[in-house]
Amino acid sequence: MKNGVLGFLGVIIALALTVLYLSIYIVNPAQQALVLQFGKVVSATQQPGLHFKIPLVQNVVYIDRRILDFNMPPLEAIASDKKRLVVDAFARYRISDPVRFYQRVNNINAANQRLSTLLQGALRDELGRSTFTAVVRDNRSQIMTRIRTLVSAATADLGLEVVDVKIRRADLPEANSQAVFSRMQTEREREATEIRAQGEEQGRRIRSRADRDATVLIAEARRDAEILRGDGDAERGRIFAEAFSEDPSFFTFYRSMQAYEAGLKTGQTSFVLSPDSSFFRYFNDPAGAAAAAAAPVQMPLQAPAAGAAPAGQ
């Protein structure tokens, strides 16, 4: 009898624990829960913690409450300036109304499909009103804001809140990019050729100006040199004249010695002179007196050239 009572109590306790276990559900901070009764939403729980439901009659569906990422496949669109664009975009969203989300799309995969359709339509619509330059450089942030506004309005009925929409890449198609690159390369080569031609022209102009300046400088230097050389020769003649006037006999002797040195070199042209010639007066008389008396020496007005015979010879 006693064992039968204990077994019955054990069964009661086991049933109570089972019912209690089936009545409890836990919601963690990254989730939100929907309590369903025969497939109909009874309540929505967004607070994390321990919650209760009617066992066997109600069941719980968990829905992610974190911010979710959606990467849209590359989209080809046409800008307002008729340029084709390949756009790679992504969106970030959260499930703001779990009841409506469950009733309209039911799961994340279906939500991503609906979001892809809405995002593609908003991108095509907005890019069709914008130029290529505006999308790529000038007004990209404003375009993203308008696209996010359009998508948010369309997804509100699905229980979704779009947090952000970004264009990761917006570029021309590969064939167009190659054509643009080739055109840019040709244009840069043309500019480089033009710049080189201008540089060559300027170089020739500079070299011509430098050659002209060098010719002028050399001519002026030669002119100044001739002037200085003439002044030097005049000064030299004056000094010779003063020296001759100081001692005419020594000057005559000195010039005769120079004439002997220049005129009696070996290997030169032969010439015949009489031994009584005044040219040899210093050979006959070291003082050269007889010859000097026969042919008096004139005072030169300028210096004679080197190797020339003395005056009066």
Automatic annotation (TrEMBL):
Q: List the SMART domains hit by this protein, alphabetically.
A: PHB
Q: What does this protein do?
A: HflC and HflK could regulate a protease.
InterPro entries of this UniProt entry?
Band_7, Band_7/SPFH_dom_sf, HflC, Stomatin_HflK_fam
Entry keyword set? Hydrolase, Membrane, Protease, Transmembrane, Transmembrane helix
Where, by residue number, does the polypeptide cross the bilayer? 6-27
Tagged with keyword Protease: yes
The Swiss-Prot or TrEMBL record describes its family as follows: Belongs to the band 7/mec-2 family. HflC subfamily.
Q: Where in the cell is it found?
A: Membrane
One Gene Ontology term of the biological-process aspect is:
proteolysis
UniProt domain Band: residue ranges: 22-184
Say yes or no: keyword Acetylation present.
no
Q: Name one GO cellular component term.
A: membrane
Main localization category: membrane
What name goes with this protein?
A: Protein HflC
A GO MF annotation of the entry reads: peptidase activity
Q: Which Pfam families match?
A: Band_7
Topology within the bilayer: Single-pass membrane protein
